[in-house]
Design a protein that fits this description.
Elements: H1 3-6, E1 11-13, H2 16-19, H3 41-46, H4 48-53, E2 58-61, E3 65-67, E4 83-89, H5 96-108, E5 112-117, E6 121-123, H6 155-160, E7 163-164, E8 169-172, H7 178-194, E9 199-202, H8 213-220, E10 223-226, H9 233-236, E11 245-246, H10 249-259, H11 266-279, E12 288-290, H12 306-318, E13 322-326, H13 342-348, H14 368-386, E14 396-398, E15 404-409, E16 412-417, E17 427-431, E18 441-444, E19 449-452, E20 459-463, E21 469-473, H15 474-477
Parallel strand pairs: 1-2, 1-13, 2-5, 5-9, 9-10, 10-11, 12-13
Antiparallel strand pairs: 3-4, 6-8, 7-8, 14-15, 15-16, 16-21, 17-20, 18-19, 18-21
Helix pairs in contact: 7-8, 10-11, 10-12, 12-14
The structure holds modified acarbose hexasaccharide and calcium ion (CA).
Length: 487
């Protein structure tokens, strides 16, 4: 599928090994062990209704190719990023028929399949690597000479030195060499067509020279979203010219900092957005917007304040770009006591403790934050349906202060705050330029409370709780059978 076909979608990110087992069993899975826990492609198929019920129409799965087997000092390759053979599949996740069946099952539900792919490195558990273990890059000359990245400000080192360390070196492919480039390009073309893949999440994009990417992307022939792990929009900007989309890491940094406590700074988040809008090829319209992923501490390890969590979770859905929810997110609001070792996961947060098995949750949908996600997905869908230029018009940020922010993306207006749920302080959002028809009646879809625009279409809201509000005109809701339909 094309970038335009992905733009109105929302993406559910899962770690294949940790999402669902094929027989519905819930084997023990201690994240600290860093071992395979038993999730498979068949397991994903068995829980597609769950993902669909949450309102997502695309699924991003872990890398699918064959990985290093056995143990390392960093555990096993359960996450799928330790490629050894690009021409075979990871048998721990299933067979070629299983992956084709997953693709077909998604397409039957009009959902898209996004596969994570790695071209920067092949991974070994010895130093120097035994290159003969790698397929098809079995020669030392297929790789850059060994040197580990120590200076992230030296772009040549970032591109041509190695990630990892001597225990688990990520041998850096020589992506300057024509034969390596043409092998990777023909591999991706075949992979996409063999499994009817709709889009790719591309790993370690900043570690490969920028002018490698256009050829790879055109060989893939589908939507591509790249990972450039960096805080600065100015660093990401050039990469927006070489692939369709990027994960919105700069906004993730300021989003997290803004909402992790009531002294965070929403102005800094707005500033990141303004910089990105000004410097990215398509502004912020094509970024992948996220609060959590498999590499970063769970948001809930930073705060347990339910208002802050709801505000931060709303962000990807109410602004520009393609919302992405990582499957760790909806664990929030579940009964903590039912998970062995759960407290550790909730306070530790980072890799590997952020990669809990979802089967411990029982896939229960009757939880406050699962409902929150369903409403956000539906609100976005209704907004897209109500305004044909919703996806192509940049969000405007108003009422920006350290503690309040209004995001206007007509007909949707989101009012966010980081005062938190302990606050009794009054919060005010004043948006005289909201652009609604005079006296338009709006509904906060999170509570179904009404707000009326003033006679010049502006919105002035006072609140004393720290909850976010997501406003839509009642006229945009009429098509809906579910949210706030009893008004
Ligand atoms: C393993 C162990 C971990 C251990 C780690 C060192 O090694 O499991 O316990 O802590 C896969 C696995 C990981 C595994 C790695 C390495 O392989 O998932 O569990 O970690 O063996 C992508 C994927 C990621 C994947 C790989 C490798 C790449 O999303 O899941 O990891 O295929 C760099 C890369 C980025 C990469 C990331 C893991 O490493 O750029 O593509 N992610 C700085 C650098 C970043 C760097 C980051 C590493 O450190 O600028 O380039 O990311 O943590 C800000 C600074 C930033 C700073 C961040 C962390 O903090 O401004 O500069 O980023 O404040
Ligand atoms: Ca490289």
């Amino acid at each position: 599928a094309t970038a335009a076909e992905w733009q109105n979608r929302t993406i559910y990110q899962l770690v294949t090994d940790r999402f669902a087992t094929p027989d519905g069993s819930g084997p023990p899975c201690d994240t600290g062990d860093r071992k395979y826990c038993g999730g498979t492609w068949k397991g994903i198929i068995s829980k597609l209704d769950y993902i669909h019920d949450l309102g997502f129409d695309a699924v991003w799965i872990s890398p699918v190719v064959a990985n290093l087997e056995g143990n390392t000092t960093d555990g096993q390759a359960y996450h799928g990023y330790w490629t050894q053979d690009i021409n075979s599949l990871n048998s721990k996740f299933g067979t070629a028929d299983d992956l084709k069946a997953l693709s077909a099952a998604l397409h039957n539900r009009s959902m898209y399949l996004m596969v994570d792919v790695v071209v920067n490195h092949m991974v070994s558990n010895s130093d120097p690597p035994d290159y003969s273990n790698f397929t098809p890059f079995s020669k030392e000359s297929n790789f850059h000479p060994e040197c580990f990245i120590t200076d992230y400000t030296n772009q040549t080192d970032v591109e041509q030195c190695w990630l990892g360390d001597k225990d688990v070196p990520l041998a850096d492919l020589n992506t300057e060499a024509d034969d390596v480039v043409s092998s990777l390009n023909s591999w991706i073309k075949g992979l996409v067509s063999d499994y009817a893949i709709d889009g790719l999440r591309i790993d370690t994009v900043k570690h490969v020279r920028k002018d490698f990417w256009p050829g790879f992307v055109s060989s893939a022939g589908v939507f591509t979203i790249g990972e450039v792990l960096h805080e600065e929009p100015s660093y990401l900007a050039p990469y927006t010219k070489v692939m369709d989309s990027l994960l919105d890491y700069p906004a993730w940094f300021t989003l997290t900092a803004a909402f992790k406590n009531n002294t965070g700074n929403l102005t800094a988040l707005a500033t990141t957005v303004w910089q990105s809008q000004a410097s990215y090829l398509s502004g912020e319209l094509m970024v992948g917007s996220f609060l959590e992923n498999h590499d970063q501490p769970r948001f809930q390890s930073l705060t347990q304040d339910s208002s802050l969590i709801k505000n931060a979770m709303a962000w990807p859905f109410v602004q520009d770009g393609i919302p992405i929810l990582s499957h760790s997110s909806e664990r929030i609001g579940a009964d903590h006591h039912s998970y062995p070792g759960q407290e550790q996961g909730y306070t530790g947060g980072g890799d590997p403790s952020n990669r809990e098995a979802l089967w411990y949750s029982g896939y229960i949908e009757d939880k406050p934050l699962v409902t929150h996600v369903k409403i956000l997905n539906e609100a976005r869908r209704l907004a897209i349906a109500a305004n044909t230029s919703f996806l192509t018009t940049a969000a405007l940020l108003y009422a920006v202060s350290e503690s309040t922010l209004a995001v206007s993306k007509p007909p949707l207006l989101a009012l966010l705050t980081n005062v938190g749920n302990i606050s009794t302080a009054a919060t005010t959002w004043n948006v005289p330029d909201a652009g609604y028809p005079a006296n338009e009646v709006l509904v906060d879809v999170l509570t179904c409370n009404k707000v009326t625009a003033d006679n010049s279409g502006g919105v002035l809201v006072h609140a004393t709780s720290g909850e976010p509000q997501v406003l839509l005109p009642t006229s945009a809701l009429s098509a809906s059978g579910s949210i706030c339909s009893n008004l």
